[in-house]
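re: ur question from earlier - yeah i can do the single chain one, its not a big deal. heres the input i used so u can compare w yours
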Amino acid sequence: MFTGIIEALGQVNEFVLREKEWRLRISCPALDFSDVKLGDSIAVNGCCLTVTDFNKLGDKAGFCADVSNESIGLTTFQYLKPGAKVNLEKALTPQTRLGGHLVSGHVDGVGEIISLADDGGSWRIEVRVPDGLAKYIAQKGSVCIDGTSLTVNAVSGAVFGVNIIPHTQQATIIHTYKVGHKVNIEVDLISRYLERLVLGDRAAQPSSASGLTPAFLAEHGFT
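and the output i got, formated as tokens:
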């Protein structure tokens, strides 16, 4: 589990296919690796990865992780190239301050930046998500963009808006965003479970027959 509070920026040194999985090598001298051991989890742009080795670029100046084909297909890793900057966060501990919200590091889909506008010293960013994720995003709810915990300011269909303060811009890769940029999206954990709870016994049916529909909600008094 993570909090969505980015600890450091890393740089991709290598991203290559080895046998059936991809090997990702990231350098990050700014991240404290003193409490990280092999097998621990680090979120890279919001995607939970397992540390499989440490870079030999000084004293644990970075780490390696294996990335499955499934993760490649479901995240922006498919666009990742050597030299790219990435957001990094170590897994939380019982003593960690929960400054953001509970984040699993399991990316739900890829969104696209459709607008950026100055708002004083902050940025207003609009993101379009796949239609299937729109129902999980609510105004003043939480969302994770490339591993960064943010509050949703507005929602219109499959588009939502967030406000990015100057500190968050500079402490994350958000300052590199442009219109058309692809981002990893993780919706709030509560919204996922709420959908299943509302379905009740119907949740045990095959997925093709168990989704929430307007008729189902009306029948059970939700609309």
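The two ends are 34 Å apart (CA to CA). not sure if urs matches, ping me
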